[in-house]
Amino acid sequence: MRHIAKLKFAAIVFGMLAVAACSSSDRPDLQQQEAAVPGSERDFVLNVGDRVFFTTDVTTLSDEARETLRRQAAWLKLYPQIKVQVEGHADERGTREYNLALSAQRATNVRNFLVSQGIDASRLSTIAYGKERPVALCDAESCWSQNRRAVTIIMSGAASG
């Protein structure tokens, strides 16, 4: 019995030491080690932002969405060889047909905004997914708000990395 108590104590001490070792500030910052290569898909996602969000049943761009899209346009001007596709999405409420139309309009509005910022329309395409590709699955606003989005996907021309 006493032997088991010593083993339990040793296991607890070992566990605490393991947790302390993992939380050390001497560990290298993994994000700094994995810095994005300029002009890469990772650079676009991390440093520019690849998506904008919409409120319920809305296809117009918010001020925050416009700011993200201005950054996208500036980045796309730096890399004129890159072609992108704007994916429109909707949350799972509503009919399939309604959500396809809603997500198509969201993608088109993003595309049109990028064109208005000086991006050649031939570099941009759109696709509507409706509610078919949710990123969050639950029956709550916290999930629905993540699914009402337009995502700019790099199709070609990006640097590796």
From TrEMBL:
<keyword id="KW-0472">Membrane</keyword>
<keyword id="KW-0564">Palmitate</keyword>
<feature type="signal peptide">
    <location>
        <begin position="1"/>
        <end position="20"/>
    </location>
</feature>
<protein>
    <recommendedName>
        <fullName>Peptidoglycan-associated lipoprotein</fullName>
    </recommendedName>
</protein>
<keyword id="KW-0998">Cell outer membrane</keyword>
<dbReference type="InterPro" id="IPR006665">
    <property type="entry name" value="OmpA-like"/>
</dbReference>
<comment type="subunit">
    <text>The Tol-Pal system is composed of five core proteins: the inner membrane proteins TolA, TolQ and TolR, the periplasmic protein TolB and the outer membrane protein Pal. They form a network linking the inner and outer membranes and the peptidoglycan layer.</text>
</comment>
<feature type="domain" description="OmpA-like">
    <location>
        <begin position="41"/>
        <end position="158"/>
    </location>
</feature>
<keyword id="KW-0131">Cell cycle</keyword>
<comment type="function">
    <text>Part of the Tol-Pal system, which plays a role in outer membrane invagination during cell division and is important for maintaining outer membrane integrity.</text>
</comment>
<keyword id="KW-0732">Signal</keyword>
<dbReference type="Pfam" id="PF00691">
    <property type="entry name" value="OmpA"/>
</dbReference>
<dbReference type="InterPro" id="IPR036737">
    <property type="entry name" value="OmpA-like_sf"/>
</dbReference>
<dbReference type="InterPro" id="IPR014169">
    <property type="entry name" value="Pal_lipo_C"/>
</dbReference>
<dbReference type="GO" id="GO:0051301">
    <property type="term" value="P:cell division"/>
</dbReference>
<keyword id="KW-0449">Lipoprotein</keyword>
<dbReference type="GO" id="GO:0009279">
    <property type="term" value="C:cell outer membrane"/>
</dbReference>
<dbReference type="InterPro" id="IPR006664">
    <property type="entry name" value="OMP_bac"/>
</dbReference>
<dbReference type="InterPro" id="IPR039001">
    <property type="entry name" value="Pal"/>
</dbReference>
<comment type="similarity">
    <text>Belongs to the Pal lipoprotein family.</text>
</comment>
<dbReference type="InterPro" id="IPR050330">
    <property type="entry name" value="Bact_OuterMem_StrucFunc"/>
</dbReference>
<keyword id="KW-0132">Cell division</keyword>
